[in-house]
């Protein structure tokens, strides 16, 4: 039932080329594995690109649903356990953000059953498969367990499930289960970023976490990519980063190797890296933040903004908790480095003069 599935590249971006020391790959939305997990969301948006079909409504039924589904809820994913009294029949399980679920009218059984059948037929058409093969690939038979990843912390979702036949028709009542993912417990630790433009047009970045033992994520974001791939809604920096991380978790969770995600994608300790081959005219964020044991972003996000000419234009690395007790020029961590901007090199500084504090960029 769970054969290999193709992988697609969605809006790939790779600007990390040279590094001064080994760096684990950034949390990308460089790719999204096409799995049973993210196909649940893809069905409602990306499949609109497929050819229009003349579709019949799914058969409606009041047959009892033999499946019992329980959830183990985490910050960025849930684990579903399904038991069924009918070991021979297929059943379908899917999820969607609660807000979108309600906007689509999926609290109505007829609407939801029709849309589920439509999805099976569109998948078959798009992949040149029989509907029966789609049902066998994306549905369950007998007792089963499955992860749903790609979720955001402290958000509401709806899971629904029902029996299906090999034509994609709904064969039992539809059950729905609303849930909210767990919130992340934030920490006060901070990561300090420094940036300098190189002679060949790259950006040399140093990253200094205040706790060398904690895991953190680090990467670059092209601002033009900061939208939901399916709804095309704009995303915040945090949601973009978390979505990329959460999507990556699925394969590791499914293989019982969550710790391997941290070995592959997370970082510990100081490092330096050069970002080069930036696309002319594109604006970027370079970002870093601590992650907890479930992959949730649990700290303030350190950011460097890069303008369309490849210049660092803004740095927000740490909360400055060091009192600025005298006029002068300070680094972002509160170290006094001079009395005028003429005393310092290029970069971001805090300047205090006549009792007023300003954040400035010296170019």
Summarize the structure.
With 363 residues, the chain is of the alpha+beta class.
Summarize the topology.
Blueprint: E1 16-19, H1 36-45, E2 67-73, E3 78-84, E4 90-97, H2 98-103, H3 109-126, H4 131-138, E5 140-141, E6 144-148, E7 156-164, E8 175-180, E9 191-197, E10 203-209, E11 216-222, H5 237-254, H6 258-265, E12 271-275, E13 284-290, E14 302-306, E15 312-316, E16 328-330, E17 336-338, E18 347-353, E19 356-362
Antiparallel strand pairs: 1-12, 2-3, 3-6, 4-5, 4-7, 7-8, 9-10, 10-12, 11-13, 13-14, 14-15, 16-17, 16-18, 18-19
Helix pairs in contact: 3-4, 5-6
Walk me through the structure.
- The chain is an alpha+beta fold and 363 residues long.
- Helix content is 19%, strand content 31%.
- It is built from six helices and 19 strands.
- The strands form five sheets. Strands 1-12-10-9 form a four-stranded antiparallel beta sheet, with no helix packed on it. It has a four-stranded antiparallel beta sheet with strand order 5-4-7-8.
- The chain is elongated, with a radius of gyration of 24 Å.
Count of DSSP-assigned helices: 6
Specify the structural class: alpha+beta
What is the chain-wise order of helices and strands? EHEEEHHHEEEEEEEHHEEEEEEEE
Spatial sequence of strands, sheet with the most strands: 1-12-10-9
Shape: elongated
Biggest β-sheet strands, sense, barrel: 4 strands, antiparallel
Stretches where pLDDT is under 50 for at least 5 consecutive residues are: 1-57, 317-322
How many beta-strand segments? 19
- How much helix, percentage-wise, in residues? 10-25%
| First-last Cα distance | 59 Å
């Amino acid at each position: 039932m769970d054969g290999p599935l193709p992988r697609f590249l969605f809006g790939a971006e790779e600007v990390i080329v040279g590094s001064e020391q080994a760096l684990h790959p950034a949390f990308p939305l460089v790719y999204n594995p096409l799995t049973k997990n993210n196909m649940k969301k893809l069905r409602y948006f990306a499949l609109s690109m497929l050819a229009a079909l003349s579709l019949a409504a799914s058969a409606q039924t009041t047959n009892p649903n033999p499946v019992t589904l329980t959830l183990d809820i985490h910050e960025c994913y849930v684990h579903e356990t399904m038991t069924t009294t009918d070991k021979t029949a297929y059943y379908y399980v899917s999820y969607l953000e609660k807000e979108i679920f309600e906007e689509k009218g999926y609290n109505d059984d007829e609407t939801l059953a029709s849309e589920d059948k439509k999805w099976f037929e569109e998948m078959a058409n798009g992949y040149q498969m029989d509907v029966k093969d789609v049902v066998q690939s994306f549905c369950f038979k007998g007792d089963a367990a499955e992860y749903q990843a790609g979720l955001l912390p402290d958000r509401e979702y709806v899971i629904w499930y029902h029996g299906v036949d090999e034509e994609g028709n709904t064969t039992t009542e539809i059950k729905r289960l609303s849930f909210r993912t767990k919130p992340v417990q934030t920490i006060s630790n901070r990561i300090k970023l420094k940036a300098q433009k190189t002679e060949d047009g790259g950006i040399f970045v140093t990253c200094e976490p205040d706790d060398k033992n904690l895991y953190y994520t680090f990467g670059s974001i092209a601002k033009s990519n900061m939208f939901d791939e399916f709804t095309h809604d704009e995303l915040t920096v945090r949601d973009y980063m978390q979505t990329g991380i959460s999507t990556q978790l699925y394969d590791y969770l499914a293989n019982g190797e969550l710790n391997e995600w941290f070995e592959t994608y997370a970082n510990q300790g100081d490092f330096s890296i050069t970002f080069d081959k930036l696309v002319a005219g594109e604006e970027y964020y370079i970002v870093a933040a601590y992650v907890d044991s479930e992959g949730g972003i649990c700290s303030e996000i350190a950011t460097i903004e890069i303008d369309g000419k490849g210049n660092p234009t803004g740095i927000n690395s740490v909360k400055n908790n060091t009192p600025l007790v005298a006029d002068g020029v300070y680094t972002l961590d509160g170290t006094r480095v001079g009395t005028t901007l003429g005393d310092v090199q290029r970069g971001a500084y805090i300047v205090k003069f006549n009792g007023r504090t300003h954040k400035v960029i010296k170019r």
